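Standup notes, protein team

Yesterday: finished cleaning the Rhodocytophaga aerolata set.
Today: LytTR family DNA-binding domain-containing protein structure.
Blockers: none.

Input for LytTR family DNA-binding domain-containing protein:
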Amino acid sequence: MNLVIVEDESIAARRISKMVQELAPGTQVQAVLTSVADSVHWLRQNPPPDLMLLDIELVDGQSFEIFEQVEVLCPVIFTTAYDEYAIRAFKVNSIDYLLKPIQEKELQQSLQKLQSLKKVYGDNNPSSVNMDILLQELRTQRKAPIQESRDRILVKQGQRMFPVATTEVACFFTKDKLNYVRTKSDKQYLIDYTLDELEKSLNPKNFFRANRQYIIEFHAVTRVHHYFQSKLKVEITPKPDEDIIISREKAAELRLWLGE
């Protein structure tokens, strides 16, 4: 079996390579690619491999972009620490989906699934990825009922309490073990709700849990930057007291939330 690994973490790539070669002796790792650009170039210059193990979050973007630039004519197993809601989409639209850190037993099952499909379909393996279907499935599963989403939040100012409409909110955040809301007019108020409680009650179309410290509002986002180790940095207005960093694992979800 000819294998191509697309993974920008060298330790993870070596581990995957070793694991596959132990599970499927005779496997030839044709290439270990670390970026969207390298993957596109390699696929244009070489015959399709028998299998691609493909991480979603790469150093220069999402591996979804590979499919937009070149036709991928081989089975794909996605390997990523992606959110749980996506599992069904990947299961349906690719050979398999493996959650990092990859377990040997799960990888073995994926390889067995590939071999079973080859026995049935031969070279006409219907296992290449239809990215249009996959991305549509991801967006569909990301949607949540909004009928019961809160449209206001009760805030405190001294001895006074009053409601603030969620349309006026730029972000919710935690600082020094207290929880606050910051409005688009740059006013800050203390609130009694935790970010976990707010995350469950806010409209997910308008609000995104960026990290443990921040929930951000869609219209407050002004810019997104690539950050170290495939993370993202989000700028919002009014400017917060600290940088809002999106983890590698949540970066793909943020992109979908922003409309990718």
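Follow-up from PR in the comments: The mean pLDDT is 83.
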